[in-house]
Amino acid sequence: MIEAIFQFLHVDSMGEFLWVCVGFGGQLLFTARFLIQWIASEKAERSVVPVAFWYFSVLGGLVLGAYAVYRRDPVFMLGQGMGLFIYSRNLWLIHAEKRRHAE
């Protein structure tokens, strides 16, 4: 059974299998952000982007970035790196605005 799973996932060892699981976990985190955004928009009856969207973006990007480094995929690394910069910048702007309004 495990041999069939390894063959399907194109892995040769338990270590590689665990990294594929990490990759899937990162993808699930990344996908969850869209569900969060959709649910928030439905509740507000307008399009909104909740702060949790950006946190899930960062978490998913970090996990997928680690997976990309393990796979030594420069295209994937660059894509996740650029995304992490954008997600982090959005969180910075959100928190900076909250600090300004708190003063």
Keywords:
103 residues; 4 helices
Provide the succession of SSEs. Answer: HHHH
Quantity of strands, as a count: 0
User: Gap between N and C termini, in Å?
Assistant: 61 Å
The proportion of strand residues reads under 5%
Number of helices: 4
Biggest pleated sheet: none
Tell me the helix content: over 70%
Note the overall shape: elongated
Please give the radius of gyration in angstroms.
17 Å
**Overall pLDDT level:** 93
Strand pairing plus helix content: what structural class?
mainly alpha
Regions with little confidence, pLDDT below 50 for 5+ residues: none
Summarize the model shown.
The chain has 103 residues and is an all-alpha fold. 13% of the residues are buried.
Could you describe the 3D structure shown?
It is built from four helices and no strands. It is elongated, with a radius of gyration of 17 Å. α2 runs antiparallel to α3 (51-71) and α3 runs antiparallel to α4 (74-102). It is mainly alpha-helical. The chain starts with a helix and ends with a helix. It has helices spanning 2-9, 14-44, 51-71, 74-102. The mean pLDDT is 93.
How would you summarize the topology of this molecule?
Elements: H1 2-9, H2 14-44, H3 51-71, H4 74-102
